[in-house]
UniProtKB/TrEMBL annotation:
A cellular component annotation (GO) from this entry: chitin-based extracellular matrix
PANTHER family noted in UniProt: CUTICLE PROTEIN (PTHR10380), CUTICULAR PROTEIN 47EF, ISOFORM C-RELATED (PTHR10380:SF173)
Annotated source species: Gryllus longicercus
GO MF annotation list: structural constituent of chitin-based larval cuticle
Pfam families, alphabetized: Chitin_bind_4
UniProt-recorded name of the protein: Cuticular protein
Length: 147
């Protein structure tokens, strides 16, 4: 019985291996290149219930790589929130119709982040000045050695 089970297992493994061998390879596909941005625009409104709109989105691009748009939704307090935005080579720039106030935890996290950022920026500035000073010393020593 064990020999029969072993024989069946080997046959199944061989069948699976041969099935894998006939799968098409996608490695031979030629890469496609994207052309320049094309102008487009779209808009939609949607809701959770029939004939009830609780979110909208509209967006347009002139083909130059700059995208302008807005989206809106009804929040849990039934306030309409709207965000207008521009996305360009310099990033995503949202403008909120009614900014949300920071909670104490968010305010504390922002403070910690700003302090950490300042500490890292100061350390990088110190290291850059140190490297410049070392490079100037090395250049002066090299000039002295040539003379």
């Amino acid at each position: 019985m064990q020999a029969l089970s072993l024989l069946m297992l080997v046959a199944a493994a061989a069948g699976a291996a041969s099935a894998v061998a006939v799968l098409p390879s996608h490695a031979e596909e030629e890469p496609t290149t994207a052309g320049p941005p094309q102008p487009y625009s779209f808009a939609y409104a949607a809701g959770r219930f029939p004939n009830h709109v609780d979110r909208t989105h509209e967006e347009a691009s002139d083909g130059s790589g700059v995208v302008r748009g807005s989206y809106a939704w009804v929040d849990p307090r039934f306030q309409v929130r709207r965000v207008e935005y521009v996305a360009d080579a310099h990033g995503f720039h949202p403008v909120l119709s009614s900014p949300v106030a920071d909670t104490p935890a968010v305010a504390a996290a922002k403070q910690r982040h700003a302090a950490l950022y300042e500490r890292i920026a100061a350390e990088h500035a110190r290291l850059a000045a140190q490297r410049q000073e070392e490079a100037a010393r090395a250049a002066a020593e090299e000039a002295d050695n040539r003379a």
